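Quarterly update, task 2.4: D-gluconic acid-bound model.
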Amino acid sequence: MNIFDLSGKRALVTGGTHGLGMAMAKGLARAGAHLIINDISSEKVESALKEYSKDGMKAYGRLFDVTNDTDVKNAIASIESEIGPIDILINNAGIIKRIPMVDMEANDFRQVIDVDLIAPFIVSKYVGRQMIARRQGKIINICSMMSELGRDTVSAYAAAKGGLKMLTKNMATEWAKYNIQVNGIGPGYFATEQTAPIRVNGHPFNDFIVGRTPAGRWGNPEDLVGTAVFLASSASDFVNGQIIYVDGGILATIGKPANEV
Ligand code: NAP
Ligand code: GCO
């Protein structure tokens, strides 16, 4: 019996058209799941669907803004009626704004909180109602190092990801009794579009992160697949309210001086 088998399961991945979302979605598909991929850009949904089908993966595309309550409510209802029950939800969609707090406009702060914290609440609410009725489900919230650590210029992001960690624990508290497992993944620093501006060769942050990470490298999106499949499968049926950090050891260490070998 393969407790990591996801055959016949349907997985909704928000922001699943590229980056970490696509890598985790492909991992779930390789374990047998059918995919529903969301984004706000129709071009990105179309090109992502071509890539999934090229890899022989069954994927449906759904265009909706995860921050728009009515959009989400209608999208979940149409997915459940046209495609089928959602067994797995990955709240992956996210944005970041790197602005010193003293220079940050309240609306910029609000926008980050909207996408990175309020949207996981909204999407989980409508998917959760169906999972509660079916007495089963898996929800995975994509947290961050900023769920635990602060960093210059990312105040809104840290506030959102810190909040998402606690939302994950509270969702587990409310829904575990319905056989719904809610957990989080906290990626370290991964090579995606989101980190491209700080991952430039010679950029001080790039060298800092490579030195600050005991593994001595940036994460590859595929490094998240094992943890995503574990938290989406029956292998984690008694795991609830946990944040699994996949960070190459960043949170395990105080780090070392740059010139120390
Ligand atoms: P990314 O490449 O920027 O992907 C983010 C995805 O979210 C994109 O598909 C984006 O769509 C989508 N999105 C943004 N706003 C949306 C909205 N309102 N409605 C629907 N979709 C929306 O970022 P990533 O690096 O893959 O990150 C994915 C998740 O992991 C994020 O939550 C991020 O905070 C988290 N994370 C990333 C890292 C890292 O090192 N990369 C580390 C820790 C945590 P568009 O492209 O169309 O805007
Ligand atoms: C940043 C990065 C981080 C990563 C990630 C770390 O500017 O510090 O973008 O926020 O995306 O969240 O775990």
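Highlight for this quarter: Residues 96, 98, 144-146, 151, 154, 157, 187-189, 194-195, 198 surround D-gluconic acid (ligand 2) (CB under 6 Å).
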